[in-house]
User: What shape does this take?
Amino acid sequence: MRKKVVLGMSGGVDSSVAAWLLKQQGYEVIGLFMKNWEDDDDDEYCSTRQDWIDAVSVADVVGVDIEAVNFASEYKDRVFAEFLREYESGRTPNPDVLCNAEIKFKAFLDHAMSLGADLIATGHYARVREIDGRFELLKAVDASKDQSYFLHRLNQAQLSRTLFPLGDLHKTEIRKIADKLELPNARKKDSTGICFIGERPFREFLNRYLSFRPGPMMTPERQIVGEHVGLSFYTLGQRKGIGLGGMKKSASVDGHHDAWYVARKDVANNILYVVQGHDHPWLLSHSLEAGQVSWVAGHNPPEGPVSAKTRYRQSDTVCFHRPMPDGQFSLNFHDAQWAITPGQSAVLYDGDVCLGGGIIAASGTSAG
Assistant: This one.
């Protein structure tokens, strides 16, 4: 009998081509459209209705059954509540990491198994490899689209039931296949930003859910240069939207106006620290500590050199990994890293193999 695969279909081109690829490989494919947000799904920024229409249209062309499932309640409890807690604590969370762990590979996986699925599949750019009964999460062949960073919390049980049909292909090939099949969404733009926020202004969205308290904006020398609107609305390394012009440095000889960057948050005293210049010491870190760890193999890698990313759009950086007694870990970098941000994920790699990672709790800046 053919194996049954339940595929997450979002209405985007990636999951649409994934449906066709799985059928070509001989699987019985059922599409599942996940509705994860419904607080304001009738406003100008929410594309759920159009995405569902696109997913149904593709399913008809490819020849697969599709159904919709509502995970909005699970999403609000498991992802959004944590998202708000992190922002209220002054950190900058990555909800896509949590969504993959709690919704797409937990709630979705459980639902798929209840439908009699043998496996699940998604349109993520990543790969799974089995060696002697153990499963590894690998980077995608297309390095520019690799999404293993967002998938680092997947475990052995989840990976053993997961297919990533796009992992060996480049995005350009996916678009060509979609064009050749004349899929109705072949030219659809890729979605950007956080899934439940869409293209809406981020600060406007947070305003609905978070209480905010204005406070002073200070330099490292404790000179007040402005007022912030609430610490939750800023992230370390942020340059745009701070509300400061190119104020001249007092020590500047040439009159150059360096850009301002968010460097630190003092949550206890409600102070936002800003610095001038991309390479200011307060923006550079040689170490970090991370908690809420998750290892693909089920156990931490040994102490020693690894590669790591501290943000998605970053090249792997060589560092030294040291497990800590409380289950956390530390990383030490030879080259200073820019704007390491508490709340983001530090993800470890051994070549193409994603080992897992944790949530950044603190960093050691070059300026103490």
